[in-house]
Predict the structure.
Amino acid sequence: MHWHAYQWTGPGADRANENERRPSSPGFPASALPPMRTGDWLVKPRSRLSATFHEVERAAAWLASEYGKVRSALPLPEGVSLDERLHTARDLLPRGVDVQWGEWLQGGRFATIGMICCPNRHVPHPCPTRAG
């Protein structure tokens, strides 16, 4: 097993456009919006793939780094600390459970930071680094 990293930051209201967030939609591949299901990141164009990891610690470091980029824009104090998030991610990822963090930011923006398991137990999508 390995993990693919994805992230999106944009206007939070855009997430309501569920049609673009479903792989059955013709607009899904071109849309930068995060998918409704975490595993569907795997069928987004390769250009959306931020990184691939074969070691949990490196995957966790990427999650921490991406979270650090948006942390100062959180409008409220963190409900879940970064240490708690990383502890949970280190537990879940080796067991084949996707990790996706979503946070509202100042100004109505939203950030999604995800580490998606490959192969994925919830969707039959091929590995994006091996497909095509």
Observations:
- Helices lie at 56-70, 82-92.
- Strands lie at 2-11, 51-53, 99-104, 109-118.
